[in-house]
Structures are given as C-alpha cells and as structure tokens.
C-alpha cells in the first residue's frame, strides 16, 4: 500500500490547523467541575474538587492535587471570587489540633499527589460573600511557585465530617 505524500508546506498547514483547533476547544457547560483540570505546562491536575456547603462563616475546599511532571510543584496561593482565601493545614500545637495558614504552601512531589481533605490540608474560604449551598459551583485559581496558575471549579456538598469547625477561634 502506498502512503500519500504531503508536501512540507502541507504538513506545516496541517500542524497549524491542529494547534488552532485544539486551542479553540473549550466547554461552557457545567461538566467542567466533574472533570480533572490540568495545567499542561505545570502538569498539575486537580481531581475530585468539592467545597463544604455553609450557610455562613468560614468553610473549606478539598481535592487531590496530582503532579505528573518530573519536578516538584509548589502551590503558594489560592484565590476565588467567592471569598478571600488562604492555604491551611491542621497541625498539633501545644497538645491541641489547630488550624493555621500553611507556611510555604503545598508541595506536590514529582509524579505524586497531595490530598486536601477535612481534618488535613485544605483551601480556606475566609469570608464567603454569600451562603454556599449544596450544588453551588465555586471557582478557584491556584498560584504555583513558578508564577503559573491552575483554575478549577468545585461543587458544594453537605458534609458533617469529623466535627471539624472552620470558625475563627480554631486558628492557632
């Protein structure tokens, strides 16, 4: 069987067309929250993101951060239009478990994952501007140490959890 011959100029045109068509791909529907979000340059993927629904006060967002690259990735900040944000951890301090800002951010090891979970590291919504009801979709952007960012959307869920409280008195 003979393979068709494509002139070099034709290959360049096909490559450019493919790049443009991939760059134009996008979704405006609500399925984005259920799909892992990746930053190809950073190789950081946000899997299974969700937010603890709350009528008032502080709350938190959780996910699994996966790094498919050959180098460690550090998340240094998070933003959301829904609330001022902080990276937080739960840690032992003077014999008590306390919530506090995470100094240095979250390091996701090369080819590894970092879990953001209730009772552990999390994304803290400090003062949501409105109640976050079950089913609401909340947008977030992670800032990485190299200046790049990873945007994702998380769905709010009712969650009683392990009785953790995201009240102001919980800070260490």
From TrEMBL:
Alphabetically ordered keywords of this record: Signal
Keyword Signal attributed: yes
InterPro entries, alphabetized: LpqE-like, Lxx211020-like, PCuAC_sf
Regions annotated as coiled coil: none
Protein name in the entry: Copper chaperone PCu(A)C
PANTHER family linked: BLR7088 PROTEIN, COPPER CHAPERONE PCU(A)C
Pfam families hit by this protein: PCuAC (PF04314)
Signal found in the keyword field: yes
Signal peptide positions on this chain: 1-26
Alphabetical list of Gene3D superfamilies matching this protein: PCu(A)C copper chaperone (2.60.40.1890)
Organism for this UniProt entry: Virgisporangium aliadipatigenens
């Amino acid at each position: 069987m003979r393979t068709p011959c494509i002139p070099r100029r034709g290959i360049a045109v096909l490559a450019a067309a493919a790049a443009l068509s991939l760059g134009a791909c996008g979704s405006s529907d609500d399925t984005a929250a259920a799909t892992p979000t990746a930053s190809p340059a950073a190789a950081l993927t946000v899997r299974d993101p969700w937010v603890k629904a709350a009528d008032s006060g502080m709350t938190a967002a959780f996910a699994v951060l996966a790094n498919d690259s050959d180098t460690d990735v550090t998340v240094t900040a998070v933003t959301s239009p829904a609330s001022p944000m902080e990276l937080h951890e739960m840690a032992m301090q003077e014999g008590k478990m306390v919530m506090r800002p995470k100094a240095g951010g979250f390091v996701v090891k090369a080819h590894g994952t970092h879990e953001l979970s209730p009772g552990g590291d999390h994304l803290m919504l400090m003062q949501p501007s409105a109640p976050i009801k079950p089913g609401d979709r909340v947008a977030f952007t992670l800032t990485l140490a190299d200046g790049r960012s990873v945007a994702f959307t998380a769905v709010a869920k009712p969650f009683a959890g392990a009785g953790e409280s995201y009240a102001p008195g919980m800070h260490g």
